Every structure is written in C-alpha cells, then in structure tokens.
Amino acid sequence: MIVVLSQPDTKSKLEMEALSQSPSLEKKELESSFSTLPKKPQKATLQATPPVAEPVPEKSAPQTVAKAAPAVPPPTPARAWQWQPLVDDVNERLRTEIPDLGELPLLYYAVLNDDAEWISQLISHGASANEPTPGGDTPLCAAIRHMSSSSVSALIYGGADVQQPGFEKQPPIALASLRRGTDILRSLTAAGADPNTRFASPVAQAVLDRVMIKDLKHSLENDRGVTPLIACAARGDVEGAAELLRAGAKTSYCTTRYKRYPINFAATQGYLFLMRIILGRQPESEPQILVTVDLSKQRAWVTQEGQVIDTCPVSTGREGFSTPAGRYVITDKHRAWTSTLYHVSMPFFMRLNCSAIGLHSGYVTGRPASHGCIRLPYDKAKKFFSLVRVGDEVQIVH
C-alpha cells in the first residue's frame, strides 16, 4: 500500500516566512494557529519495503542413517535330545531310554545289549563286574551265552571272575565250549580259566536245550566229567579244540563213567581233520602218507606225496562182516595186539577211527575172509606199520 503525506501549499509558505520576522510571541501564536489548520494529504511515494525472504533452513551435513536391524525372534527353548532312526547309533537309544529294570543290575542290561563301551564306562564308574542278578546269573556268563567276545573282554578287563558260575551252575569256560567262539575261549584261558575244567553234574535243562549233537547231549545227561575239549570234539569245532590244546587241555582226560576220550567223540562224528589235531598233528600240516584199500580188487597200497611206495594183496570183511568203505584216520597203533572180541592175536595193529576194525597182520586169501578188519601179509603189515604214523589217513574204496 502507498502512503501520501500532505505538504503546505505556496500561500502558507509565504505567510510563514513573513511571520518569521515578527516577535517570537506572535510567531508562536501563528505557529499554533497554523498547526490547527487542516492539512492536505501529501502524495509521497514511499519506497517499497523489500520483501522479507523466508528463512531457509540451514543445510546440515548429511547424516548416515543406520539401517534398522532386523527384528530378532525370541530364542527358542532348547529341545531335549531325541534319538532318530537311521541317523543315531542304536546304542545311544538303549543307553538313554532305559526301561524299568527292577532289581536287574544296569551292567547286566549293558551286557544284554552287547555294548562293550558302556560296560567299560559303568565299571570305571564303580559297577562290579561280578554283581549277580536276583536269579543268580553273572554278567560274564550272560556275555558268553550271547557269544559277545567284546563284552567278555570288557568284563574280564574290569575284573570279572572267570571261575564264577552263572545260574546254570556251570563254569564259564564250559558254557563257552558249547558254541563256536575262539576269541572267548582265548580270553578266558588267558585270564586263568582251567581248560580241563569239567561240566558240573547234573547238567541243567537250560544247558541241554542248547546242545544240538545227540552224542554230546547224551553224555552230558548220562555220563560224568565232560571237558571243554570233549565238547569241542563232539561238535567238530576245530578252532576251539586247537585253542584249548594250546592252552593246555589234555587229550587224556576222559569221561568218568564210560571212559570216552575227546578222540572218541570226534571219531563218532567222523571229523577227520579234528581227529588229526587231537592226535597231535598241527592244523596247517597235511598227511604225507595215504593208505588205500580197494575192496573190489582186494589190494592195498601206500602212497607218499602221491607216489606209490608199496602194495600188497589183502583180505577184507566177508559177507555179514563187510568192511565199510570211507575215509579214516589211524587213531592208535599196537605192535602186539589181541582182539577183545575174538581173542586172537593181531600183530602190527593199526586202528581206524577208534573203532573195532583196523589193518593188521593175518591170513590173506586174496578174497574177503575177515570179520571186518583188513588183513595184510606179515612182512607187508610190518612195513606198513613202520611207514604210517598216528594221524595218517586210510581210504577204503569199492
């Protein structure tokens, strides 16, 4: 908006100049009267007031705005470990999910699970390796029954008594001889178990139920004094018998009622290789001498490393007493022997498989004539006797 200020006109200026020369009093009256006159508005152009600039906010230095961190969810409470099939070890589940054992020792439960590592841990934390169950069983006998060589070793290392029987009242080594387990037999004998320990009589039915060989089962039921070596011989366990023999088992220990030896049990089953081991041959050795008897030709010959070194005519069993064909082992030799059945002399007798038949000197007709034995001419019987050893084999063929 423009404001116009009034200015005095020319007449007024002249009057004021005239009055300026009058005495001051009059001058004052005139000025006062003049001041009362109405004033014309003056046209005065005022300079426009420059527009006031709006304050510009100062530019502050750019600030780096930190990105907001993503919201972190509250921590999930840790879940208890849970066994996963096909991922975790089965033994871990058996160790963590233990059923109610009642009065059964935890060590016995570890034996049933065949967990040798857990057995060692429990023993190292104070568990007794000989703590019996309420039924009178021991951890060692349970491990033997389950054929766990690693558990047996862990228990023996932890102080298990190798002589303490289980609920069957049988020594641990006797139980071990009823199953194939060379490592178990080795561990027991190394810890001091006697390889000549005999089965206790009577034998519990629980033990008899585990015996599959009728001859052995009959002896355990009706005979006395069966040894671990006899059990291995009856079962044809070559490795077990060899281990027992290395540990000091005696082949001269027989049953106390019927006087049967380990070789008798092996011969009954026809275990030629085992018979040779019981007779003192090394398991890795092979016989160099083989005697062959041909029933149809009524001849016999001796071969050494495949070469025939002697031959002669023979007389085998006549009708009704025929000599059975098969493969045999010479189990004993007697330079002078008298038949216990027919009470006749049989010089240079070489028994086959602990049986009643054998090779010996006798009357030879060139045809079957004996009661089952193989008769040889005296000179040939003497030579054959000097060539063959106990443990050599004889094959009788048609």
Automatic annotation (TrEMBL):
Pathway: Cell wall biogenesis; peptidoglycan biosynthesis. PROSITE patterns: LD_TPASE (PS52029). InterPro entries: Ankyrin_rpt, Ankyrin_rpt-contain_sf, LD-transpeptidase, LD_TPept_cat_dom, Transpep_catalytic_dom. Residues 289-397 form the L,D-TPase catalytic domain. Signal peptide: none annotated. The active site is at H360 (proton donor/acceptor), C373 (nucleophile). It comes from the Bacteria. SUPFAM superfamilies: Ankyrin repeat (SSF48403), L,D-transpeptidase catalytic domain-like (SSF141523). Residues 1-63 are annotated as: Disordered. Coiled coil: none annotated. Keywords: Cell shape, Cell wall biogenesis/degradation, Peptidoglycan synthesis, Transferase. PANTHER family: L,D-TRANSPEPTIDASE (PTHR30582), L,D-TRANSPEPTIDASE YCIB-RELATED (PTHR30582:SF2). Belongs to the YkuD family. This is L,D-TPase catalytic domain-containing protein. It comes from Prosthecobacter algae.
